[in-house]
TrEMBL record:
<feature type="transmembrane region" description="Helical">
    <location>
        <begin position="186"/>
        <end position="207"/>
    </location>
</feature>
<feature type="transmembrane region" description="Helical">
    <location>
        <begin position="150"/>
        <end position="174"/>
    </location>
</feature>
<dbReference type="GO" id="GO:0022857">
    <property type="term" value="F:transmembrane transporter activity"/>
</dbReference>
<dbReference type="GO" id="GO:0016020">
    <property type="term" value="C:membrane"/>
</dbReference>
<feature type="transmembrane region" description="Helical">
    <location>
        <begin position="276"/>
        <end position="296"/>
    </location>
</feature>
<feature type="transmembrane region" description="Helical">
    <location>
        <begin position="413"/>
        <end position="434"/>
    </location>
</feature>
<keyword id="KW-1133">Transmembrane helix</keyword>
<dbReference type="InterPro" id="IPR051617">
    <property type="entry name" value="UNC-93-like_regulator"/>
</dbReference>
<dbReference type="InterPro" id="IPR011701">
    <property type="entry name" value="MFS"/>
</dbReference>
<feature type="transmembrane region" description="Helical">
    <location>
        <begin position="64"/>
        <end position="83"/>
    </location>
</feature>
<feature type="transmembrane region" description="Helical">
    <location>
        <begin position="115"/>
        <end position="143"/>
    </location>
</feature>
<protein>
    <recommendedName>
        <fullName>DUF895 domain membrane protein</fullName>
    </recommendedName>
</protein>
<dbReference type="InterPro" id="IPR036259">
    <property type="entry name" value="MFS_trans_sf"/>
</dbReference>
<feature type="transmembrane region" description="Helical">
    <location>
        <begin position="26"/>
        <end position="44"/>
    </location>
</feature>
<keyword id="KW-0472">Membrane</keyword>
<feature type="transmembrane region" description="Helical">
    <location>
        <begin position="234"/>
        <end position="256"/>
    </location>
</feature>
<keyword id="KW-0812">Transmembrane</keyword>
Length: 462
């Protein structure tokens, strides 16, 4: 362990052996993080994929989700500093606690509506998940070497999507005979809650950052501030930098579509059509994640060019989906009665394809933003701050989006217009940030350099 000039502490792990331990390797760490993502937020997303958490009416659940994301936004920004002090393993474990309680709240709301317990579960989930979101993003981006980040981001997005896919298969099996609108069966919730409970023990298997062993023998550098107050000051200093302020509109809008997509599903689709969507739609996110990873990790293309091509492609898709949504919504409002789509029956294709491409573009945009902030971080601690801010403003956007959906008579064109407008608004500031992207800023430290430093540093511990 060595001290920097500003008094902060840099943890240098022991030099990596010639053959890295499997349990300290990057693939194992990513597998653990993905396992928790599958069991906790993956199952949470599966419930969301049903529309309104599987309920018959979206409004109470939309209000609960607004509460989740409101607490999320407040906790997530601070969690970057807290996770840096307690360690990402414990931040991940702490974050997994709230998900099964949220699932229990949805279950009780479905069986015998108890709004207080739904809101309690939502509040607890919002607080704990703030730690989870900040930790998992820092692990997925910070543990691998910079040249492998987009690939592992795609693996992570696949694990996140696998939760809703498996959950969607469960939904489909339990609700395939329900060809009307309404709520899903109670057994659906019980299965999800059991799976969500596995997140905590899996999270505790993660290795501390300073013990992780990369294949190229570079190390994960942990740069802790000398005090808790200094950690929070570091987050605040980063938040007010020009680059982060320019990226806030992109962070805010990146998941804004999700609330409206849930209401759209609940309003216009039967239960089994929603179950089909919760199963199949996530494949679109997997496809877009690997497509964007193939571009962003292509070292033969200059990094700025890669970033610009990826961003322009994503924006083109997102704008296209909101134009498409405007056309369909006009048709639905002009109809004598609001349409209700059952799977593979009249009009289902044109309405469902929009949902598929919402997810396709939305997941690609999220992955791009994670990759982008990773290029500007110097170590895992800096990355923890960046991810906390990114996910905090992402959660703030979802808070607004879900709050808008909690009103029973909300005009859908308002949601469509806001999504379209903020997407347009984020283009110029994000492009300015991309224009300054020249290379990865991560400090590269090898095991050999650590051994040499320890020989010279009287403060270093063997």
């Amino acid at each position: 362990m060595a001290s920097s000039h500003d008094g902060s502490v840099i943890n240098h792990p022991t030099a990596s052996p010639t053959k890295p331990s499997f349990f300290r390797s990057i693939p194992f760490q990513i597998a653990i993080a993905c396992g928790v993502s599958f069991t906790a937020p993956g199952m949470w997303d599966a419930l969301g994929g049903l529309g309104a958490g599987g309920a018959a009416e979206p409004y109470a659940v939309s209000a609960a989700n607004a509460l989740v994301y409101g607490l999320f936004a407040a906790v997530c920004i601070a969690a970057g500093a807290i996770n840096n002090r307690i360690g990402l393993r414990y931040g991940l474990a702490l974050g997994a606690i709230g998900y099964p309680i949220y699932g229990a709240g949805l279950y009780t709301n479905n069986v015998a509506p108890k709004t207080w317990f739904l809101l309690f579960g939502s509040a607890l989930c919002g607080i704990s998940a703030g730690f989870f979101w900040a930790a998992e993003a820092a692990i997925i981006i910070g543990y691998p070497s910079p040249k492998d980040r987009a690939f592992y981001l795609a693996i992570w997005q696949t694990a996140k999507a696998a939760g809703p896919i498996v959950g969607g298969a469960i939904n489909l099996g339990l609700n395939a005979q329900t060809s009307s609108k309404g709520s899903v069966s109670s057994a659906t919730y019980i299965v999800f809650i059991v799976i969500m409970c596995l997140g905590l023990p899996i999270a505790l298997l993660l290795s501390p950052a300073e013990k992780v062993q990369r294949k190229d023998r570079t190390l994960v550098v942990v740069h802790k501030q000398p005090s808790w107050l200094a950690e929070f000051k570091a987050v605040l200093s980063l938040l007010v930098t020009k680059r982060m302020l320019l990226l806030i509109p992109a962070f805010f809008i990146s998941y804004f579509y999700n609330g409206f997509m849930s209401t759209w599903l609940t309003t216009y689709f039967t239960v089994r059509a929603r179950a089909f969507s919760s199963f199949f739609t996530n494949f679109s996110g997997i496809i877009s994640s690997f497509l964007i990873a193939g571009l962003l990790d292509r070292q033969s293309i200059f990094i700025k060019t890669r970033a610009r091509i990826a961003f322009a492609s994503i924006i083109f898709i997102l704008i296209g989906t909101w134009i498409w949504a405007s056309i369909l919504q006009k048709q639905f409002y002009d109809a004598e009665e609001p349409p209700v789509f059952d799977w593979f029956k009249g009009g289902f294709g044109k309405a469902y394809t929009l949902i598929f491409f919402w997810q396709f573009g939305g997941q690609a945009f999220q992955q791009f933003l994670y990759w982008l902030v990773g290029q500007y971080t110097t170590d895992i601690s800096s990355l923890s701050y960046h991810c906390g801010i990114l996910r905090g403003f992402e959660a703030l956007g979802q808070t607004v989006a879900w709050a808008m959906q909690s009103e029973g008579n909300a005009n859908h064109f308002v949601s469509i217009g806001l999504n379209f407008g903020i997407t347009i608004l984020c283009i110029v500031p994000t492009w300015i940030v991309l224009s300054g992207l020249e290379h990865s800023h991560e400090i590269t430290v090898t095991a050999g350099e650590v051994s040499s430093t320890k020989d010279q540093d009287p403060d270093a511990k063997a």
